[in-house]
Description:
Blueprint: E1 3-5, E2 11-16, E3 28-35, E4 38-47, E5 53-58, E6 64-69, E7 74-80, E8 87-90, H1 94-102, E9 107-112, E10 118-123, E11 128-132, E12 138-142, E13 152-157, E14 165-170, E15 175-179, E16 184-192, E17 198-205, E18 210-214, E19 223-229, E20 235-236, E21 242-244, E22 264-272, E23 275-284, E24 289-299, E25 303-308, E26 314-319, E27 324-328, E28 334-338, E29 346-351, E30 357-362, E31 367-371, H2 379-409, H3 413-422, H4 428-433
Helix pairs in contact: 2-3
Amino acid sequence: LYGAAWPEGNFIYLCGGGGSASSGIKNRLVVLESKDGQLTDQVADHHFGQDCPMRLAVSPSGKCIVLAMGAGGIRRLELDARGKVPKVTDATGELAERLASEVRGEVRCLAFAPSGDQLALGWVDGGLRVVDWPSLRTRLDCTGPLKLKDGVRDVDMAPGARAHQVAVVLDNGSAELWDWESGELLCRAGLARGEFKSDAVMTVTGPNHTSTHPLPKALHGAQFTRLRYAPLAPIVAPNGQPVASGSGAAAQPPQGAAAAPAPTSLYALMNNRSGCFITVWEVRPGGGGLVLERWRKVGDVPGACLDVARSGQHLAVGTSEGAAMVLSTFNLCPVRVNPKAHMVFSTGICFAADSKHALSISADASATVVPALPPPRQGGQVQRVFKLLLIALTLAMTIFLFVMRELKDRGHYGLWLWTQQLLGRDTSAFEAQL
């Protein structure tokens, strides 16, 4: 499995295959149903012959699926999820012909803008393009002689009507932010290289500035692997109170005042020799670059994939050894961890549209659901056991004292005296009477 999406509703879409016919594994899109976070058997599929789908994205409207194909280019499937079983059909007509003729080469990653009006495509050779969807009007074209310095590993688009930003991670471990409306590079961030090469310093280059930022010791040598823009939702503390804003969620200015550009945040998965880290970066407006806000180590092995929930409250991470985890955006601490979600490395991870579960997929063709809520506390069970033991001990003492009193009343003083002495009571006066 190479691609996954969990849009509105109970259906999950997975893609993958074995490539050539000799592998014996069919190249197809599979539709699964989820009931209360549990996966059922497939309810539908769509075959692609000898061409393996490598990535997929479902449009925010839920009306189509776009797939990056192993043989190059992208394909669009029409999606009708109104019935009991979703119907998936090949797109036909002018759009299908234009996709075949205008989008060529190996597309490694793709992402819709939250509005669904734009689609970003990243190529393995370093090409980057943003087009209006579905007209395919080009808004940003960094292909051919304008392609980026290395292959595009990951791509994401910023939320908000005014946030004309697209962020990419390159194979060399650097990250770039572009304004797809103006075509301007906003900033490029990566470990210091060239004459001042250092694994302890992050260099951020913008159109009119270059700055260096010392990294915490634990992040020395860390490179960008995946990134996601923070959604338009507040970060919520465990007590339910909002404590910070996500992208574009800044307070509204007073009436009549000029509206300052809202700050934007990026979540980035970074790897170095010691493991993987979640880092949170503030995107300064007007090409002001990136500033590291906070970070946390989340694993001792490299991270492979990342997603952020629409609610803005959780992150999901898959690792190179098949672990899957859900983290809180409030403190970046784990909420749920499945250390053996897969037998081999994770190839993708995504949240359900309702943000209650994350779905992790792997190259071993397995898919696993990880709840986004903490597991039930064991303290309640221990407390119940303690109460039962206390009740049993009280009952035993009551019975014991009752038996001792009966023995005394019937003249069996020896055992009663021994019991009183064991309890530390003075029995000399009673013994004198005897």
